[in-house]
Request: fold
Amino acid sequence: MLKVNGVSRSFGDHRVLDSVSFDVKPGRMTGFLGANGAGKTTAMRIILGVLKADAGSVTWNGEPVTQAVRQRFGYMPEERGLYPKMKVAEQIQWFGRLHGMSAAKAAANTERLLEELDLHTRANDKLEALSLGNQQRAQIAASLVHDPALLILDEPFSGLDPIAVDTVLRVLRRRAAEGAPVLFSSHQLSVVEQLCDDLVIISGGDIKASGERDEIKERYGTPRYEIVVGSDAGWLRDVPGIKVTSVDGPRAVIEPASADGFRTGGQALDQRILQEAMRRGEVRAFTPVVPSLNEIFKEAI
Amino acid sequence: MTSVEERTSVDSGNAGGLTFMQATWLVAEREIKAFLQMKGFWIGLATIVIGLFAASILPNVLGGGDTKVAVTSAEVAQTLEAGPFDVERTDDAAGAEELVRSEEVEAAVVPDTTGQSPTGVEVVALENPPSDLMASLGAPPPVNLLDPGDVGEGEKQLVIMVFALVFMMFAMGGTAIAQSAVTEKQTRVVEILVSTLPVKSLLAGKIVGHALLTIGQVVVLAIAAPIALQAGGNEELLQIILPALGWYVPFLILGFLLLSSMWAVAGSLVSRQEDLGSTMGLVMMLVFGPYMAVILLSDNETAMSVLSYVPFSAAIAMPVRLFIGDAQLWEPFLSLGLMVVMIVLITAAATRIYAGSVLQTGGKVKLSRAWSAASD
Reply:
């Protein structure tokens, strides 16, 4: 497990990270969310030793992260780049060896990865001859070739077409399933939503929330129910204590009027509404609406 | 959880990490491969080798077809005109000698003055007599050299030019290090490299890689040069140049190493190839300055002695002094020692600046800023 403990960093007078702490757990995909300039890239660079922290520490399985430990990490920086004049397979293989692999193992892994990423037909082309999307795949291969113990990806999906996103997702999921912790940043919330197990939300150099995705959603999202009844649902407007955010014939979305949620007073408000609806006739659906990350994100920061 | 983690680390099979040497070698290997794949490299090397052979052989083929000889006796003139000689008749020995001094002819055949000649003639030449002339005169006549000495002025100038030019070519070859450094910055691949390797091995790898490339080329030239001289029939020159050539090789290599870390710094201070010119200026001056100084001051013995100890010009000046025979045996060792000290100092400073600048993108990094940023 990777632990970031109270890491701070300033550039001049500008405090970019203010005592940031979070964990990246093995076998889980952790999404790192934050607006531009929130400190995501700085935090990742500190984990990778590209930048030094002013205060705090980063540990891997309880040990400080040294050069030897870091060599087993995989990193894909936000600003992409490989050697333009080097052939794709040769280059990825070289990165494998740079991370301490034998030449033979690096070659075998390169071949497998290129196959997996649908890039094997371009193995002997120079990188600069590839389209941007394919260069991006090569970049991912370069960060995965050494079977990294931890994977850190800065905006891995930016610049990818939908098919490539799926391919890359599949590859990353496989790595996570094999036990490697994966930390990736993104501002494409929909992608993060379907991909990550854990979430870390950062804003202005502060961690606003971190933990399991569903737990965070529950904590930060406004609870809502979608209700579908047999006839018109307009009567919900007159029920005290709730707000109807939308109504369309028999269908309505409701949320509590106060910040305390549905569970105020003696009996839970949501149960009272369900009973009332059943008393009035048929109830076809009564479903909690899972808040979108977008919403949580806005709420958390 | 722990079992999963253990499996991961076993899978990756590289828990130990690379040593500094291994990392350095991997970087060097990549640099060398990238260079060997470039057409420009092979064209450049081929041009030098071909040029070397051309310079040695062409004079014989073009101008040397007929050896120009001044002759006083009609009888000898007749003999020689049958061979590959361009004979010029003169009335007396003084006139023939004059032609030799003005280098209008390569040698003159005049009546014997020593009284030891089996054929009654002797050969007058400036530095050494043409071997074909000697051969066609039957029994070897006595030789009168007007300007003896180990090395002729023409040969000395030639050797200075060649030493200085070759030094400049290899020193400028260091621009490849600057280009490699800026390419890594420009493509941001440096971020992956720095997160994986110590910055020191990144720099060391570049220097080692390009130094090996240079040594390889020097060796090719050191082998080709004697062959070219032999092919051109310049055996005498070869005899003189060989010991100096042996000294030239270590000086050339240390001269390259001295500049190489500075080239790397020049590359690491900018973020785009286009801006490279602005930082390479100083290093270029350290290449051209010594080159010009040696060429211009080659006749000034004191100046050459000084230049042969200044680390940047020593790479040319000391081998030249050795070639002329001006330097004592211990002098090249002292000069090499000074160069090594300088290399250590400059490389240490360059490593710090390189580490401080290599991750700073956008615009040109100030030296002072790179120096203080190294602790980040």
